[in-house]
Amino acid sequence: AQSVTQPDIHITVSEGASLELRCNYSYGATPYLFWYVQSPGQGLQLLLKYFSGDTLVQGIKGFEAEFKRSQSSFNLRKPSVHWSDAAEYFCAVAPNTNAGKSTFGDGTTLTVKP
Amino acid sequence: EPEVTQTPSHQVTQMGQEVILRCVPISNHLYFYWYRQILGQKVEFLVSFYNNEISEKSEIFDDQFSVERPDGSNFTLKIRSTKLEDSAMYFCASRRPQGSGTEAFFGQGTRLTVV
Fold first, then answer.
1. A107 and B42 in contact by Cβ < 8 A?
2. Inter-CA distances, A21 with A11, A88, A95, A103, B100, Å
3. Which listed residue, of A13, B8, B17, B108, carries a Cα 20 to 30 Å from A70's Cα?
4. Partners of A45 in the beta sheet?
5. What are the tens digits of pLDDT across the range A21-68?
6. Which pLDDT score is estimated for B99?
7. Is the Cβ pair B91, A49 closer than 8 Å?
8. In sequence order, which residues have a C-beta less than 8 Å from that of residue B106 and are 6 or more positions away?
9. In angstroms, what separates the C-alpha of A51 from chain B's closest C-alpha?
């Protein structure tokens, strides 16, 4: 069975600063990997996904993530954070046999200081 | 852009009552899913559905839950006798067949409040 760990429950960054949200996964083969963002009371918006190929993936809103097989990680990055990025971020992993059956991490809450 | 639609956005029900949450998946999708998110917690997989039957389900998806695709467009989640702990946001998702750009697309969710 797959699992996901997001080590940081809460992160605070200043507007304009860079951001990195950590995600580690456990799965026996190469999984499908996702990052979602959720604003309070809202649904899940897919930021980016990794299925195969280039290990650095670009997403929406200026986000990118890098798949590192050797570290079982899929960290999310953004070079310059905007106040509107404040939200909850979820990393998710799905088996390569069922891309819709995702296991989500506990989430990281991002606060942006002015 | 096609999207997964869930109705209602918010439902309040009394403990012990049956509730049906409705979803209209994206029209050419063949795989369907329900997830739930208890307030302040992570999103949890409930069930996947393909070819008119459940393909996988989690431990959460006990006999109180059932899913159905009653016609060609709707996908429903029924909770037979709701409990207080069923209060959560329920997300429906759908995806195309395997091997063709296969991430699941999520709806905006139905917030279920059991009182």
1. yes
2. 8, 11, 22, 17, 29
3. A13
4. A37
5. 999 999 878 889 999 999 988 889 999 999 888 999 999 999 999 999
6. 63
7. no
8. A36, A43, A44, A46, B4, B35, B91, B92, B93
9. 9
- Whether B100 has a pLDDT exceeding 80, the answer reads no
3-state SS assignment for residue B85: helix
Query: In whole angstroms, what is the distance from residue B30 CA to residue B32 CA?
Result: 7
Q: Which residues of A touch B102 (CB under 8 A)?
A: 32, 51, 99-100
As a residue count, chain A comes to 114
d(CA A107, CA A89): 5
Sorting pLDDT into bands at 50, 70 and 90, what band is B4? Answer: very high
Q: Would the pLDDT of B96 be above 60?
A: yes
Residues of A with CB under 8 A from a CB of B: 32, 34, 36, 41-44, 46, 49, 51, 90, 92, 97-107
Question: Minimal Cα–Cα distance from A82 to chain B, Å?
Answer: 23
Contacts of B104 in chain A (CB under 8 A): 99-100, 102
Which of A18-22, A52-56, A93-97, B105-109 ranks highest by mean pLDDT?
A: A18-22
Amino acid at the residue B18:
E
Q: What is the pLDDT of residue B79?
A: 97
Closest in A43, A46, A97 to B103, CB measured: A46
